[in-house]
Design goal:
The chain has a domain of 51 residues. 70% of the residues lie in helices and 0% in strands. It is mostly helical and 79 residues long. It is elongated, with a radius of gyration of 19 Å. It has 4 helices and no strands.
């Protein structure tokens, strides 16, 4: 039976706590700092993201950085 003390807001809060459980607070701030300093993100933009949205952007950025590093580390071809 539906209990009045369990409202949608409680479920949403629990969802986001679970969604953020894989990320430590220190890591959260470290990633924010790196994205602001090195990739020109704005703190307001980062803080307004939904946790899974932020994780998607972080994953995409990591892939991009890895690809750029691979390109830089490839031996230069002679023409």
């Amino acid at each position: 039976m539906w209990n009045k003390r369990h409202k949608n807001t409680g479920r949403v809060g629990r969802f986001f706590r679970i969604g953020l459980s894989h990320d430590s607070l220190a890591n959260h701030y470290t990633v924010n700092f790196a994205m602001i300093q090195h990739h020109n993100w704005n703190l307001t933009e980062l803080e307004n993201m939904i946790p899974f949205e932020r994780q998607i952007y972080v994953d995409m950025l990591m892939e991009h950085v890895e690809e750029e590093n691979d390109k830089m580390n490839q031996p230069k071809r002679s023409h």
